[in-house]
Write a structure and sequence with these properties.
By secondary structure, this protein is an alpha/beta fold. The chain has a single domain, classed as Rossmann fold (3-Layer(aba) Sandwich). The chain is 43% helix and 15% strand. It contains six helices and five strands, in the order βαααβαββαβα. Strands 1-2-3-4-5 form a five-stranded parallel beta sheet, with helices on both faces. Helix 4 links the parallel strand 2 and strand 3. Helix 3 crosses helix 4. The two termini are 14 Å apart.
Length: 190
């Protein structure tokens, strides 16, 4: 599995998530797309993202995933990292699954995700993933052939799984990890 960080960068919560996944028996790689930089606010994180640029972030993500992609990766990510994970998973014919935490990405009209298992966990409402966007995203993913599950968490903040952020919601985070670990366990049987 490759787990991509949010616009905040590779923060302790991402490493803790990777350790949680490893403890459940998964091999997890956590690339640092910001090369050591982290942000204290979403605005600062977006500035770092914009400074690096979308194309360079995708290049770094592809380079990080490439050594493992022949084994059939599960792509996962937080917010911005979810967007990156989605782009990589849809471009990888061997992708085994896609776990999106707090973020999605647009799809090309000709996108193909034949039977790709996808699970999304998102706040409800989420200022970065509004209802209209999520509904359209879901329909486009289904049209592309993905097997999509969406879990919405009323009242939670955007990145509600990070205990160091104001959005943190312990109950929603615990439910997310319980459901996500079940999803990943099912993928191991696949």
């Amino acid at each position: 599995m490759v787990l991509f960080h949010s616009a905040y960068g590779l923060r302790p919560a991402v490493q803790e998530a990777a350790e949680r996944l490893r403890a459940a028996g998964h091999e997890v790689h956590v690339p640092d797309l910001y090369e050591g930089r982290t942000a204290d606010s979403v605005e600062q994180g977006m500035m770092i993202k914009d400074e690096i640029g979308k194309d360079e972030l995708l290049r770094r993500a592809v380079a990080a995933a490439a050594p493992f992609s022949d084994r059939g990766l599960v792509y996962a990510g937080f917010s911005l990292g979810g967007s990156i994970a989605q782009n990589l998973a849809l471009a990888d014919e061997k992708a085994r699954g896609l776990l999106l935490l707090h973020g999605t990405s647009d799809l090309a009209e000709d996108a193909s995700a034949d039977d790709l298992p996808v699970q999304l966990h998102v706040a409800d409402p989420d200022p970065f993933e509004p209802h209209d966007w999520l509904n359209a995203w879901y329909l486009r993913m289904r049209r592309a052939g993905a097997d999509v599950e969406v879990y919405r968490y009323p009242g939670a903040g955007h990145i509600f799984t990070d205990p160091e952020l104001p959005d943190y919601d312990a109950e929603a985070a615990n439910t997310t990890w319980s459901v996500a670990l079940g999803f990943l366990q099912d993928l191991q049987r696949w």
